[in-house]
Amino acid sequence: MLIVTGYDGSPHADEAIRRADMFATRLGAEHHVVMVAHVSPIEFTAMANPYQVDLYGLEEERLVGAFDAIRNGLDTQPETVVVRGNPVLELTAHAEEHDADLIVVGSRGRGAVATVLLGSTSHGVLWRARTDVLVVH
């Protein structure tokens, strides 16, 4: 059995990781954590500057740092994957590619304004996934 959890560094994602870790422990399941570095066109345009800051690299560092802060509290040590792109597409693609049995996501991520601008990842995963999805509130 494979559980795939989407992680964006938010408190809701922390709860999703903990819930998925609990299920992985109880079921003896493999657990993958997928961190998607996503920079919206709005953020990319707003931050454009002559210094060519690597926004994706900064986002990857933020995600890995946030996950490392909660990693020690987990019962399992999940495989971690860091990719760049659209969170919904990357998370569901990883789940399909690895024949996951369950996708776990938090109910909220970046906040209300970002949700309006970027869309809801949990909602997108619910509609796009070909496997069961658990949305952790």
Rg, rounded, reads 15 Å
SSE string: EHEHHEHEHHE
Global structural class = alpha/beta
The dominant shape is globular
Would you identify the regions where 5 or more consecutive residues have pLDDT less than 50?
none
CATH superfamily: HUPs
Spatial strand order of the main sheet: 3-2-1-4-5
CATH architecture: 3-Layer(aba) Sandwich
CATH top level?
A: Alpha Beta
Distance between the termini: 23 Å
Structure description:
By secondary structure, the chain is of the alpha/beta class. It has one domain (2-136): Rossmann fold, CATH 3.40.50. Helices cover 48% and strands 22% of the residues. The protein is built from 6 helices and 5 strands, in the order βαβααβαβααβ. The chain has helices at residues 11-27, 41-46, 55-71, 87-97, 112-118, 121-128, and strands spanning 2-7, 30-37, 79-84, 102-106, 132-136. A 5-stranded parallel β-sheet has the order 3-2-1-4-5, with helices on both faces. β1, α1 (11-27) and β2 (30-37) form a beta-alpha-beta unit. α4 (87-97) runs parallel beside α6. The radius of gyration is 15 Å and the shape is globular. The protein starts with a strand and ends with a strand. The model has no long low-confidence stretch (mean pLDDT 88).
